[in-house]
Amino acid sequence: MAEAAILGFLQYNESIPDSGTFAAEQNLDHEEVKNVVKSLQGFLYIEAKELKRETLVLTDEGKKYAEEGSPEFHFFSAVPEEGSISKDDLEKTLEASVFKIGSTQAAKKKWVAMGKQVSRKVQHVEDKVKESLLQIQQGLELDKETLTALKTRKLIATQGWTGYCDIKKGPSYAPQRRTFATDLTRDNLQNWKELEFKEYNFNAKGQPVDAGHLHPLLKVRKQFKDIFCQMGFEEMPTNNFVESSFWNFDALFQPQQHPARDSHDTFFLKAPSTTRELPEDYVERVKQVHESGGYGSRGYNYEWKREEANKNLLRTHTTAVSSRMLYALAKGPFTPKKYFSIDRVFRNEAVDRTHLAEFHQIEGLICDRGLTLGDLIGVLEAFFARLGMPKLRFKPAYNPYTEPSMEIFSYHEGLKKWVEIGNSGMFRPEMLRPMGLPEDVRVIAWGLSLERPTMILYGVNNIRDLFGHKVDLNLIKGNPICRVGI
Predict the structure, then answer these.
(1) Which residues contact 290 (CB under 8 A, 6 or more apart)?
(2) Other beta carbons less than 10 A from residue 386's beta carbon
(3) In 3D, which of 215, 243, 245 has the Cα closest to residue 321?
(4) Measured between alpha carbons, how far is 14 from 385 in angstroms, rounded to an integer?
(5) Nearest to 383 by CA among 324, 439, 445
(6) CA–CA dist 268, 26 (Å, integer)
């Protein structure tokens, strides 16, 4: 309706000076008129200029006064023409808001004399407030002093108004909008001479395709996995989150009184609380090396308890998987192996911006004859160089199942300092010999978390924003491609 009115008016008139006035004269909704003008302007049917101005509108209180009259006028009208009325009786006669505002304004305008008794000072008054509000509703202009007084009492407010002015015919003007063919259908192509096709915008983007999105951790994990595969490593099966204390601790020559085995640091299972199967001959050798040592070691000299080893838990590191793989390797003729794993581990830690109760561990190990600490350093330099970390330093450290052990540090170009990036070492004979591996076989290993490098790559400062129920889905949908080491 608005479109026909605009195009029809311009057919016999040069222009529409003001869209607001036009909408009022044609009895049209101005918002509809604006939308039609914008659409016709886009198709060059008309030309128009945007118009912005501020208008005065009545507040809810102002509308009430314009309809019923101001409180001061009601207050004055309630005071008798002759004599006086007590203030208490007057308060009972009027509404609370009318009495409160009306008494103040009537006294201020010197219409009444206030005291315990209220009387008129003048006999006749005009409700200028109501008259002014009605004039504003009619679009009439008022003097500055009156407007200021009404704004002070919050009876009127300024409202932005937008519209169009100087609306004229455009280069493609027609009394009626033409219908364009928008699809290349069989019928349209057969009758193309009779049709007018809409111009195609070849620069316009198509609708976004609904699809799944990879989590940043999965992208970084894929890069690490590719690096391991390029270096000839074989991935270990890590699909068992539940592990026995034997494979998680005892097989790694970690004593049963070690603090890491407390419930404060480890999640133990209630059901099933214990494991059913362990290799008995291997268990006996592990017990022997814990209690009295062997293979050049004195052991820990304590009473090793089978019930502690049987306890089930959520694995605290993927090294539990490494111990299983090395034990399986020792059963047959020895073959050198390179293993890696990237999977979830669980620790009973306080959750903060850098720690979670579950996270991902990256682990790599090489099992071969005659390996030395120099081999470990060389492999680490080759591995981390592929991650874009060519500058490494190593610091002696302690681990129950590796000796020697080293913390790995890399120089961070952004922070301009050395930062710890992982841990490493050579598995102890007390761990390897009970498995049945030959005496000259050595195992070098290292590990690091997946979350820390991901946080650095994607600029995430709080680990809870990366992993867990607080993750913003927009991060998952909009994160860039991961290129480690570039």
Answers:
(1) 250, 253, 255, 256, 299, 300, 302, 304
(2) 17
(3) 243
(4) 75
(5) 445
(6) 79
Q: Residues 73-97: pLDDT tens digits?
A: 998 888 898 888 888 888 888 898 8
Q: What order of strands is seen across the sheet that includes strand 392-399?
A: 234-235, 337-346, 358-369, 441-449, 417-427, 402-412, 392-399
Structure tokens, 138: 């009619």
Closest-CA residue to 475 (of 467, 483, 207): 467
Quote the tokens at residue 75: 């207050």
Q: Are 83 and 113 in contact (CB under 8 A)?
A: no
Q: What is the 3-state secondary structure (H, E, C) of the chain?
A: CHHHHHHHHHHHCCCEEEHHHHHHHCCCCHHHHHHHHHHHHHCCCEEEEEEEEEEEEECHHHHHHHHHCCHHHHHHHHCCCCCEEEHHHHHHHCCHHHHHHHHHHHHHCCCEECCCEEEECCCCCCCHHHHHHHHHHCCCCCCHHHHHHHHHCCCEEEEEEEEEEEEEECCCCCCCCCCCECCCCHHHHHCHHHCCECCCCCCCCCCCCCCCCCCHHHHHHHHHHHHHHHCCCEECCCCCCEEEHHHHCHHHCCCCCCHHHCCCCCCECCCCCECCCCCHHHHHHHHHHHHCCECCECCCCCCCCHHHHHEEEECCCCHHHHHHHHHHHHCCCCCCEEEEEEEEEECCCCCCCCCCCEEEEEEEEEEEECCCHHHHHHHHHHHHHHCCCCCEEEEEEEECCEEEEEEEEEEECCCCEEEEEEEEEEECHHHHHHHCCCCCEEEEEEEEECHHHHHHHHCCCCHHHCCCCCCCHHHHHHCCCCCCCC
CA distance readout (Å), 222 to 50, 295, 359, 364: 54, 40, 16, 15
Q: What is the per-residue pLDDT for 175?
A: 85
The 3-class SS string of 166-183 reads EEEECCCCCCCCCCCECC
- Nearest-10 crossing angle of helices 216-230, 373-386: 130
Give 114-172 pLDDT, tens digit per residue: 888 989 998 898 999 999 999 988 878 888 898 888 999 999 888 888 899 999 999 88
Structure tokens that stand for 326 in this block: 């090395």
Count of CB atoms within 10 A of residue 221's CB? 19
Distance in angstroms between the alpha carbons of the first and the last residue of the chain: 61
Centre a 10 Å sphere on the Cβ of residue 291 and count the other Cβ atoms it contains.
Answer: 14
Rounded Cα–Cα distance for residues 34 and 370 (Å): 84
Structure tokens at 288: 């022997």
